[in-house]
Write a structure and sequence with these properties.
mainly alpha, two-stranded antiparallel sheet, two-stranded antiparallel ribbon
Length: 478
Amino acid sequence: MADYTVYENPLITRYAGREMSENFSDLKRFRLWRKLWIALAESEMELGLNITKSQVDEMKKYADDINFDVAEKYEHAVRHDVMAHVKAFGDQAKSAAPIIHLGATSCFVDCNSELIIMYDALGIIKTKLVNVMDKLRAFALKYKDMPTLGFTHLQPAQLTTVGKRATLWLQDLEMDYNNLENLLASFKLRGVKGTTGTQASFMELFNGDENKVKELEKRVVAKMGFDKVYGVTGQTYPRKFDYNVLCVLSQMAQSAYKFSNDIRILQNMKEIEEPFEKSQIGSSAMAYKRNPMRSERIGSLARFVISLPMNSAITAGTQWFERTLDDSANRRIVNAQAFLALDGILNIYMNVSENLVVYDKVIARHIAAELPFMATENIMMECVKAGGNRQELHERIRVLSMEAGKNVKVNGGENNLIELIKADDMFAAVKDKLDEILDARKFIGRAPSQVTEFIANEIDPILAANSAVLGKKGEVKV
């Protein structure tokens, strides 16, 4: 049950999924610390240090059994979280107590575990990202042929299709996916570097044998499931990496933000709506309202994520020489919350993109109100083909268009341009062709083909490569 007397982070209680919350939990972090200590001790033993198999086995026995209460008592006394856990681990694996953390600095466990946690978090994000893409793919294909008003400057422009517009959202996510893949492909651990990154303590342990020190790092990293390490570090892994990670997360948030704004505008126009549940309340005062709360929540969380890379940039820029500790408290907050917030965004994005409601008759009505203006050039060209004067036709259409515009804006009437054209003898040659000329499908260009080609060439290969994780549903907690 919640403790209502203290602040609780809404990213945990309201937005992020359970998997992401567990990924940044103390339980996972401290189990990784122990796994790293075990990998270090076992590798040191394999390379000839005076460490016994029974000591390593006793460490493994307590690898997952974190005595949190003991560690908390030690931390209150020593004011050092890593040493508190070294002592707590040693209280359990008593025979191994003298060799736990041998040659290492705090950042051996802190940095390497943080990197592994972020790697796993990126995997969770990747799964949800491709699921959003899969849902938008289905939506784009379903509505690839449905004409709709395009907008530039938020003013009616040439027609597009509902599905083509969805490919713009998809293309943003494709760019995000590629950036994420590049980040994962170049992922490195800090490795086994010692206090200031020189590996001096390990050189001392192995009596100056550089090959053994290099082999130690290789073995430890392999035992943790990785094969790449930073060639050089100070005490920590480069804090610029945090900035790179948050930039990738920010870009995904930007994509989601754009989508959410488009849906909010479309919902205002009554063309497309996000899902609205049977018992959902849109407003505490106005019972009729169907507020786009999911899309608004995406935008709200996205704004937070987009703001965070600057924080990491400042942290990276203020790492004096080999390191300074003013990054610690900051990174505990920023890194985790960036992932938790984006996780919440993608949960909602999945939910909305899978359950969008399209009102085709409203869309058609909006097209009908604007298409006569867009069709004037086509009408004029048909009249020219029948022997008309282009310049005279252009001027007459301009006059009639202004009259129709006045009827809409000043009189609050319908767009009557077509009626005006039908009644004008100058356009007698096209009277019987107007319905054909005004067919909205003739104004969408290659939009349907662009949808199918883009999805086949660029989206389907991504989804095929991730087919094993497709089929997820978006969770909206409250």
